[in-house]
Amino acid sequence: MKYLILLLLVFTFAGSQVMAQVDQKESAAFIARVLPDRKNDFLIEEIQQENGKDVFEIESKGGKIILRGNNGLSVASALNYYLKNYCFCDITWNGTNLNIPAVLPAINGKVHKNTPYNYRYYLNYCTFNYTMAWWDWERWQKEIDWMAMNGINMPLAITGEEAIWRDVYRGMGFSEKELEGFFSGPAYFSWLWMGNIDAWGGPLPQHWMDSHKELQKKILSRERSFGMKPVLSAFTGHVPPSFKNKYPAAKVKRTNWDAGFPDVFILDPEDTLFEEIGKKYIELQTKEFGTDHLYSSDTFNENIPPTNDSTYLSDMSKKVFRSMTAADPKAVWVMQGWMFHYNNKFWQPQQIKALLNAIPNDQMIILDLYSDAHPVWNRTNAYYGKPWIWNMLQNFGGNISMFGRMRHVAADPAIALHDPESKNMVGIGLAPEGIEQNPALFELMLENVWKDTPTDADEWVKGYARRRYGKATPQMNEAWNILLNTVYSGGLTEGGNESIIVARPTFEKKIDRVLTGVEYDQLKLVKAWGLFVAAGKELQSSDGFEYDLVDVTRQVLANYASPLQQKMAKSFKDKDEAAYKKYSAEFLVLMDDMDLLLNTRKDFLLGKWISEARANGITEKEKNLYEFNARDLVTLWGDKESGLREYSNRQWAGLIKCYYKPRWQMFLTMLDKSLKTGTPPDLKAFDAAVKNWEWKWVNLHDNAYAAQPKGNAFETAAQLYSKYSQTITDAYAK
């Protein structure tokens, strides 16, 4: 009887501090995943929140380390803090150092950390495609552990959404055939859910829907076991193209993303069906996935509303919100503030106020998505009193250029937190379009989670190099100081500079959708490259060092492609056939050398991306469909006339040698003929030919790309340094 009464009390006070928040079994399993050989060296204890926010403690006792937290992610953060600051270890996407001392370093006294932020948000709709499109449970499990270790408690969670929508529309009488014209392929879900496209890359197999519904259940269960509160999706108004036929009286309007895709169809929030569909969706979603009452919905993502009338915008906002609360009265609308930057001419103060003020403050949170470069909070009176979250966006299209605004992410969140004008700032977050690149930048941003003061970026990079490489060296201290003040002192562009090699061949300097301009002193980057090569013999056993060495080498060579291209262009215009042959041959060899280098790391393999895509299929037809999605996203991003081509370009082994290089060879062959015949090159014919070639490549299934790295990264980088460093130095010194 006493046990029954105690159990009832626990359930009665669920959600309060009376109920235990640390699942000992889950936390122990987490430690075993991260440190299987040292799992018994750590003890787990629970403590209470402080001022309603997460907290952790670390203490030594009897040769063991006690990890205390108010929930699983606080315990995980305690472990991460100990590994970084006492064992000088590091865990990132692109290299891990877990060389822990045989005797665990003791802690003098007690470490006590609490976060100033209620929410630590993570992910962007685009991340689920530019990086995560093909992830299985094993990869997701690693990511969730990483999230917990870095204090993230508010992840966007949209995997498996398509299965819920299938069930909603089937329940409304839509046939499988009708829905084939709606659901996109797996690489394009983000833009389907944001109301930009229909069907591209489909039709979507039922197996995908069923398997990813189950995957989402695993993801959510694990995230919640740490104490995270996942953000699920809500109805945006985007309906199937056949909707008007089935509901002819419905208020449906066409809209176009202006990216070369057909119109999509948006149900007007004023239509009674809007609330009905939104309610059905959340009810079915809750039945399958549960809920933490946080819902993402962006009705006008990169689309402009039909009118700027304040009354219309206010009413629309209320109706979207009602479609959530009809199913969940506790619903909190999590809205991306991206449109206020992207379409800033439309979203003036009057329009923003009308949209936001229609919703109670305690049931809306705004994601200031681009705070690190283009904040909106500081020109909207902090979103007019709404709770909001400061975010680092950083990456566009999943491109892999070395880039970031390190000093800004080291200091600006804390500065904003203490600014009286920031008002109801309740969190910080990461909202990248792609991940698994620039690991230092993300780690520096996450330093903000457990502190409310700026981080000294100059000192931080020294500590980062020591943790990442397993030891401190003068060369790496100097190299990281250079990186901090070159590639990681980025401007206000949409990510870092890309390479001319990924552009459709041309002799122009500036290319649409390929950013080739470099804002930093490239001679300094060459110097950093030399420092990495010099430290290689000492540090080459470090996984993180190997990645960074390859990445720095890649960036230097990628940058050098532009002056080499311009030499080709000048020699062609001057009709200097000998110089043209010399520079064009060097340009093609440069691509071969980059491909050889990138083959040495799993992080830069087209074959890995394609093999993971194909692994999701259970029939050859499905595998081929997913391969098409994988190839198309990182090249054309649509059909052969796509205006988004190269938006998601990647400098990957396989892609350089078998896609970018053949295009340039086609271009140079045309120019060779022009020089020999003395006739102008037929650029129009080349454009048609290269488009056909690209489309053919996107549709191939030739199993031509290795999914595993090969070669020695240090030896290859050292050879390339010996081959290119002086030539590149001379090119920039002139």
Automatic annotation (TrEMBL):
Record bears the keyword Cytoplasm: no
Domain Alpha-N-acetylglucosaminidase tim-barrel: 120-451
GO MF term (any one): hydrolase activity
InterPro entries: Hex-like_dom2, NAGLU, NAGLU_C, NAGLU_N, NAGLU_tim-barrel
Position of the signal peptide: 1-20
Entry keyword annotation includes Hydrolase: yes
Gene3D superfamilies: Chitobiase/beta-hexosaminidase domain 2-like, Glycosidases, N-acetyl-b-d-glucoasminidase
Coiled coil start-end: none
Domain annotation Alpha-N-acetylglucosaminidase N-terminal: ranges: 28-106
Alphabetic keyword roster: Hydrolase, Signal
GO BP: carbohydrate metabolic process
Alpha-N-acetylglucosaminidase C-terminal domain boundaries: 460-723
A Pfam family it matches: NAGLU_N
PANTHER family: ALPHA-N-ACETYLGLUCOSAMINIDASE (PTHR12872:SF1)
This protein's name: Alpha-N-acetylglucosaminidase
